[in-house]
Structures are given as structure tokens and as C-alpha cells.
Design brief:
With about 500 residues, the protein is an alpha/beta fold. It has one domain (about 15-305, about 390-485): Amidase signature (AS) enzymes (Alpha-Beta Complex), CATH 3.90.1300.10. The protein has helices at about 15-20, 25-45, 55-70, 110-120, 160-170, 185-190, 225-235, 280-295, 310-325, 345-355, 360-370, 375-400, 425, 435-440, 465-480; strands at about 50, 80-85, 120-125, 175-180, 195, 220, 265-270, 300, 405-410, 445-450, 455-460. Helix 7 (about 225-235) runs antiparallel to helix 15 and helix 9 crosses helix 11. The longest helix has 23 residues, at about 375-400. Mean pLDDT is about 95; it is low at about 490-500.
């Protein structure tokens, strides 16, 4: 750890970029420190499935050379970042947390990743996740669970648990995850970091290993709301490789961040503040609501009556899409093939999928295949799509009265690994996040306190395409609350301030 890097533990991306621009530190030093910090945390956390040490250092040196030559570079150039292992980067491993893709190397780069690469960001590694992004604890990874930096015996949430954990540990200043039913916001809440899910279609899904294509969305984990806005601004926009991306102009959220919330109408959904909340979560969120009032926001209680239907609707639609998307993993085109090539074709299909997929993936494939089957399609899948429309319409009605919604992100703080052994209790972790995905809305989780030493997350939800408003409302709370500088205790081998 060089003297230049020491003490940058809670620096924002903007401050790191300023230091790089002034040549107070180099990207190579910053990246080396990130890689060293990852190595230090890995025995306790297992946040990474692969690291890219040489690739990262080469990219960092290229960024440094550009600055030394006084070339014009992006604000993000030279900043280390980690990628959830469902995002493709050319010539690098991508497994989606599955043994089925063990040893597979991506032949191309995801659009969102390519845009950050073009900005000069430095990719340090691929982070652990629930297999094919199916889970809420990162325990469904085919390569073992990830621990929470606040307590490694607890879950970091999921499915993007590794991405959340490495940012919480201050190993890297930012990472990318994906959110299908809360898989950015829920782990951000449990790890005490910022996690932003943009409006569906704002960030291209090209190069993302799909789980549920009408729900998946790529977004950032950061330490600051401003950092999330910077990454979103770089990634967002239409992409000819993804027909679901939106052609509407992308509103730059950064200039609006400091506008505050005075005069804004913020709704608190009655159904999100129910009895399922733990006492500490309720107290932290109520304190956050009071702080918004102190800043001049107008707080109104609102109702989203179909909230309790969100989870069951999601667990019809998402598995149905998963069943279709994962049909391509048959041992012929991607990943491992079992048994030998001389075996009958049907036996090869069955054995490859039987041994390659984990229990949760198999459960969702079977559920999805069932709800799409003849005689059940109308009763389940079509009905779920109708309820999805109902949920979206209820959000639209509420947003005709308020500018944004504030609510808990997760009903509880991080739970011990292995504590939720049945599927239903695990699915309930997403009860406050899945409605946002069903409606395609932007949402963010920001730290808002603690319960028993573990972080609590506050969720801000906005209307479709109001990503800038969501970030603005979140930034106002972050600046007023002071939670942004809270960090987990570092391993004994590091001293305060040495982690990035």
C-alpha cells in the first residue's frame, strides 16, 4: 500500500478522479491497492469467482499513460470496478455462478461493460452470484456462498451478493450487478452500500446472461449516490443490439443531484410498512422519513393495494422466462457437456442439465415449464401478466399524486448463512422489491441506519424514466444523514483507511 493510496477508503469516484487528474496517485497504484484488498478479504468473503490482475494492471497503465500525455480522458478513466459474473467481457471467464459454464470464456463484451471500458474503467474481476442470478442470498452459487463484510457469517443478500460485498469491504469503489426482482437493491441494503436499478430498458441487456428478459436490468453498486449517477450516465442509452432499450433521450442526473427535496411530495406506501418489518428496520426507515420532512419534503401516505400479489406474480413470470432462456444450456453450444460425446443425444441433454444446474435453478425451470404448459398457461402465466398490469397501473395512479416513493428495501437486515433453508422464506426477502421490477420502474437502496450492528436500507422508487428524480431524492437523504461514511471493520492485516 503506497502512501498516495492510504486514506482513500471512503473517497468518492469524483474525488479519486480528481486525485488521478492531479497525478497525486496513479491508476496503477489504485488498481494494485484494490487487488491487494481483494486478496485480503477473499478468505473471509469469497466475493470473487475470478480476478483479472494482469488485465487490470495493463488497463490502469494505459490510463496513466494517457494522462501523462495530457490526452483528454473520461472522469471514470483509471477507476477500478468489479463485474457480476453474468456480464460478458471478451476473452474473460463468465460462469453465471453455475458449474454448467465452468471454464467458459466469453467471445464478446456486454454493451454496458463496453461503454465503461471505453470510458477507461479498470475491470479487476468477476464477482460471485446466485446461479444464473436466481436467489436472494448468494448461497445458490455453484462455487460456494459469499459472506457479508459486516459479519462474514451472514449473507450479503443476492443474487448480486459478491458485487455488493466487495464495495462494502472498500476493495473497489464500484461494481455492476443485475436486478430482476431486487438483486441489486436487496444486497445493497444488507451490505450498507448504494444500489441503483434503472428504469427497465434504460441500460442495454446485450451481453447479460439472461434470467428473465422482461425483468432483468443492469445497474451499479457504489459508496455514494453521485457515483451511481456517474456510472448510470455512462451506461444508459439505446442500443441496436437490444431491442428493448428505450429511444427516449437520457436525462443527465448529475446536475440535479443537489437540488434537494424541499417541496417534493414523497409517498410512503402503507403496504410496505406492515408487520413483516423487523423493529430495527421500521425504526430506521421512520427516522429517514422524519429527516426528509425536516428538509422540506411533503410526506404523504399512499396505498398500493396489490403489493401482496407481487411476489406470487413474480414467481410465475420470472420462472416462465427462465425456463425459456435456460433451454439454450444443453451441452451442445455452451459450457460443459456430460457424459461423453458418444452417448445418445437425449441422455447427453439430461445428464448435462441434471449435473450442471443446481437445485434452485432446477426448481425454477420446472415451475416455469409447468405454468407455460398446455392447460395451465391461461390459469397461471396469462393471469400473472394481468396482475402485473394491475400493479403497474397502481404505481401510475400513485405517481400522479407524488413525485417519488420512500420505503424499506428489505424487511430485515442480513441473516445468517443457512438460516433460510426453505424456498418460501427466501423468496419473502424480495417482497418489497419485486413490484418495482414488474412495473419496470427505477429504484435505489441507500444506507439509513443499523439494527444489531447490521445495515438497514432505504428504498426510493420513482415513475418510469424518472431515474434522475430517484437519484436526486436519494442524494438528499445521503447528504443529510451521514450514513455514507460508515464502513465495516477491516481485517487485522489492514489499518484504517488502507482499503479503497
Amino acid at each position: 500500500m503506497t502512501a498516495a493510496v492510504a486514506g482513500t477508503g471512503n473517497w468518492s469516484i469524483t474525488r479519486l478522479a480528481q486525485a488521478l487528474e492531479k497525478k497525486e496517485l496513479s491508476s496503477e497504484e489504485l488498481t494494485g491497492a484494490a487487488l491487494d484488498s481483494i486478496d485480503t478479504w477473499e478468505p473471509a468473503l469469497h466475493a470473487y469467482l475470478s480476478q483479472m490482475r494482469e488485465h487490470a494492471l495493463d488497463s490502469a497503465r494505459a490510463s496513466d499513460r494517457a494522462r501523462l500525455a495530457d490526452e483528454k480522458v473520461s472522469l471514470l478513466s483509471g477507476i477500478p470496478i468489479a463485474l457480476k459474473d453474468v456480464l460478458c467481457l471478451e476473452n474473460q471467464p463468465v460462469t453465471a455462478g453455475s458449474r454448467l459454464l465452468e471454464g467458459f470464456t466469453s467471445p464478446y463484451t456486454a454493451t454496458a461493460v463496453a461503454r465503461l471500458k471505453a470510458a477507461g474503467m479498470v475491470f479487476v474481476g468477476k464477482t460471485n452470484c446466485d446461479e444464473f442470478a436466481m436467489g436472494s442470498s448468494t448461497e445458490n452459487s455453484g462455487y460456494g456462498p459469499t459472506g457479508n463484510p459486516w459479519d462474514p457469517a451472514c449473507s450479503p443478500g443476492g443474487s448480486s451478493g459478491g458485487s455488493a460485498a466487495t464495495v462494502a469491504a472498500r476493495s473497489v469503489p464500484c461494481s455492476l450487478g443485475t436486478d430482476t426482482g431486487g438483486s441489486i437493491r436487496q444486497p445493497a441494503s444488507l451490505c450498507g452500500v448504494v444500489g441503483f436499478k434503472p428504469t427497465y430498458g434504460r441500460v442495454s441487456r446485450y451481453g447479460l446472461i439472461a434470467f428473465a428478459s422482461s425483468l432483468d436490468q443492469i445497474g451499479p453498486f457504489t459508496r455514494r449516490v453521485e457515483d451511481a449517477a456517474l456510472l448510470y450516465r455512462e451506461m444508459a442509452g439505446a442500443d441496436p443490439m437490444d431491442s428493448t432499450t428505450l429511444s427516449d433521450p437520457v436525462e443527465d442526473p448529475v446536475p440535479q443531484l443537489s437540488a434537494g427535496v424541499a417541496g417534493l411530495r414523497l409517498g410512503v406506501p402503507r403496504e410496505y410498512m406492515g408487520s413483516a418489518l423487523s423493529p430495527g428496520v421500521r425504526a430506521a426507515v421512520e427516522a429517514a422519513i422524519a429527516l426528509y420532512q425536516e428538509q422540506g419534503a411533503i410526506i404523504e401516505e399512499v396505498s398500493l393495494p396489490s403489493t401482496d400479489l407481487g411476489l406470487s406474480t413474480y414467481y410465475v413470470i420470472a420462472p416462465a422466462e427462465c425456463s425459456s432462456n435456460l433451454a439454450r444450456f444443453d451441452g451442445v453450444r455452451y459450457g460443459n457437456r456430460l457424459p461423453s460425446e458418444l452417448a445418445p443425444l437425449t441422455e447427453m441433454y439430461l445428464e448435462t442439465r441434471r449435473k450442471g444446474f443446481g437445485p434452485e435453478v432446477k426448481r425454477r425451470i420446472m415451475l416455469g415449464t409447468y405454468v407455460l404448459s398446455h392447460g395451465y398457461y391461461d390459469a397461471y402465466y396469462r393471469k400473472a401478466q394481468q396482475v402485473r398490469s394491475l400493479i403497474a397501473n397502481e404505481f401510475s395512479t400513485v405517481f400522479s399524486k407524488v413525485d417519488a416513493l420512500i420505503a424499506p428495501t428489505s424487511p430485515s437486515v442480513a441473516f445468517p448463512l443457512g438460516a433460510k433453508s426453505d424456498a418460501l422464506s427466501m423468496y419473502m426477502c424480495d417482497v418489497l422489491t419485486v413490484p418495482v421490477n414488474l412495473a419496470g420502474l427505477p429504484g435505489i437502496s441507500i444506507p439509513c441506519g443499523f439494527e444489531d450492528g447490521l445495515p438497514v436500507g432505504l428504498q426510493v422508487i420513482g415513475p418510469r424514466l424518472a431515474d434522475a428524480m430517484v437519484l436526486r431524492v436519494a442524494h438528499a437523504y445521503e447528504e443529510a444523514s451521514g450514513w455514507k461514511d460508515e464502513a465495516p471493520k477491516l481485517p487485522h492485516t489492514l489499518t484504517t483507511g488502507e482499503a479503497l
